[in-house]
């Protein structure tokens, strides 16, 4: 695989699943030519999220235990849909499509800009996690660790899509 072809993890968070936005948001990733190479619905436990957010993402280290606690509370409200997308510079492309972590700061046309609006300030004052719809890997190192945390090798698929000749 070319070094420009990347895999990245995307989590459709409980707020996306519960609002019935998975299909609409998924279509945005597919329309730009990203290929789904793994997918599953899962309701992880606290230990799984701790590994994802702290051991890989360093959330507690960077933002404190309270930030993890409110995020965990929000994430265990329902199942998530975990997906791995593959494509040309997929990590940066997905992050551009998703928008800023703070929905209020996300540009119109991004997923968060179009489907959410909460600010960090409001979430903090309400003592809640910020429902920002999607988790997307931040860089190649995180993507590799996150994908192996959420999926086994035999859950990742290799295949050709009809439109790859136009997108690669």
Mind explaining what this structure looks like?
- The mean pLDDT is 94.
- The protein has ten helices and four strands; from the N terminus they run E-H-H-E-H-H-H-E-H-H-H-E-H-H.
- The radius of gyration is 16 Å and the shape is globular.
- The chain is α+β, with helices and mostly antiparallel strands and 168 residues long.
- Helix 3 (46-56) packs antiparallel against helix 9.
Mean pLDDT: 94
Helix content: 40-55%
Q: How many domain regions?
A: 1
Strand content: 15-25%
| SSE series | EHHEHHHEHHHEHH
CATH secondary-structure class: Alpha Beta
Number of strands: 4
Number of helices: 10
Q: Kindly provide the radius of gyration, computed on alpha-carbon positions and rounded to a whole number of angstroms.
A: 16 Å
Going by CATH, the architecture would be 2-Layer Sandwich
The rough form would be described as globular
Q: Residue ranges: pLDDT <50 for 5 or more in a row?
A: none
Q: What is the CATH homologous superfamily assignment? A: Nucleoside diphosphate kinase-like domain
